[in-house]
Write a structure and sequence with these properties.
The protein is an alpha/beta fold. Helix content is about 25%, strand content about 25%. A hairpin with a 3-residue loop joins strand 7 (about 100-105) and strand 8 (about 110-115). Helix 2 packs parallel to helix 3 (about 80-85). The longest helix has 23 residues, at about 180-200.
């Protein structure tokens, strides 16, 4: 090929605890924007300590009757304004220094277990939203392609990589916001850029 566009996306970082794979899409979700509205009036939990977890919990606070936020660290790593807004929510309970150890259920999620300094505890929840990071699917790219510290493909405004003829678009790139509409826009830019590149080659 004379031009290639990489659009391999990302995959969510998993907890790797018992029950996670079994109840995926049966109460376990990695996208609050996608699945949060399905849990209106129900008790939910968000697992994580960064901005994506904070945004998830804020969204769920307006949807669910009760939201637990499970943070394995002693404090959040996200933006202060998000943390302060979350603490104002009366239906949100934050649990620090808690490491999720198991997801439990029957046909669907019924709860989770976590470990803290006092031992193992259990929460009854119907939905669990895991927001502990995303991993870009950039491992198939050769070593010559420039990546950022997170493994995302670095592109310019024309979706060009550092290698002529190689383009990237969507969540696998270092674009700051991971949304379908942005990925689709980048796909259009990458395609137009690739066409221009090929046209120049043929002259």
């Amino acid at each position: 090929a004379k031009a290639v566009i990489v659009t391999t996306g990302v995959h969510p970082r998993e907890l790797t605890v018992p029950g996670e794979k079994e109840y995926r899409n049966k109460g376990v979700s990695y996208c609050t924007v996608c699945d949060g509205p399905l849990f209106r009036g129900k008790v939910t939990a968000t697992i994580g300590g960064g901005n994506s977890a904070l945004e998830s919990a804020l969204m769920l606070a307006d949807i669910s009757s009760k939201v637990y936020v499970i943070n394995k660290n002693a404090q959040f790593k996200g933006e202060d304004v998000l943390i302060e807004n979350l603490k104002k929510k009366t239906n949100v309970e934050i649990i620090y220094n808690a490491k999720t150890s198991q997801i439990i259920g029957d046909k669907f999620v019924k709860g989770l277990k976590y470990q803290d300094v006092s031992g193992e505890k259990e929460l009854s929840v119907e939905g669990i939203f895991v927001h502990i990071g995303m991993i870009p699917n950039s491992n198939l790219i050769g070593s010559g392609v420039e990546l950022d510290q997170f493994g995302q493909i670095k592109v310019n405004k024309n979706c060009e990589t550092n290698i002529p003829g190689l383009y990237a678009a969507g969540d696998v790139t270092d674009v700051p916001h991971k949304q379908i509409v942005i990925a689709a826009g980048q796909g259009s830019i990458a395609t137009l850029s690739a066409v221009q590149y090929l046209n120049r080659l043929n002259k």
